[in-house]
Amino acid sequence: MDSITHIVLGACIGEIILDKNAGRKAILWGALAQSVPDIDFIAGMWMPVSTELIAHRGITHSFTFAGFISFFLALVAARWHKAEPISLRKWFFFFLIEILCHLFLDAMNNYGIGWFEPFSSVRFSFNVIYVADPLFTILPLIGFVFLLFLRNDHKHRLRWARATVAIASVYLIFALINKFNIDKVARSYARDSSGTKFNYLTTPTLLNNFLWFVVIEDSTGYNIGYRSIFDKKKSLALRHIAKNENLLDPIHDHKEVIELKQFSQGFYTLEQQGDTLVFNDLRFGQTDGWRNPQSRFAFHYYLSHPNDNELVVQRGRFAGFDLESAAIIWRRIQGTDF
After folding, report:
1. The overall pTM is greater than 0.70
2. Rounded-to-integer distance, Cα 304 and Cα 314, Å
3. 261 and 291 share one domain
């Protein structure tokens, strides 16, 4: 999830676990604890882009790291607040719960997270909620603001924090139900006439959980399209794109190619643009596909010109998103065809 969501949810959870024992410091420690796993961005500043992609959400987003850092932070907090009636054990479980919550939420996105690093490089991504979803964030943000200004002895502080986390949980359940229903439609298309099953991917589109991007593999590439949770038609309107795996033949053993294939979890295509070979990661969707089905993929990496990839993760994520595009995605969410 985005940093704001982690901070405000962490603050609310901190209020619930530590209650009045730590006063306002509970929400500050909670916000800090939920931000700790993202310290890996510092190391990424000195890495090649393709390496940075698989390093982010790696070891610092693992259960191993969660255990060690929780114990370390518990020692620091217990020493800092030794005059307050909070045991070392409670501090440890407080930090552990906060960090595990961060790991759980990040796994709900499509980036991928290394829960079992350094023992396994397998990445988990359940594609349930977009990395920044205003409807998921807004209530925890309001709750955070209230907690900042309410007195420590206010009788509704704890109730407000609990309600905030409960509502965020309900929205996540709503997203899981949407995921289940969209997957059910995609699965019916993920096989050919002979009964062969193919991989498929469904993920929410930009800033919402109502319109989903669908990717279904076939023998030569992928079929892609969009599905709203309000669509009444059972059919999917899909268009085919070639994978063009053969374009990698001359460089298939290059380190950056190996890293990109690992990062994409197998959902990628290649295309030649002039003298530039472009690697498209399909998991992040298109930049403006609900308006222009031919639009480029939000995540694309220039294999021929790697120095142009400094902002590879940010490139295209919001490209072309204006008032007209917002109006079109709103109509599409309501079940209106392109």
Report:
1. yes
2. 19
3. yes
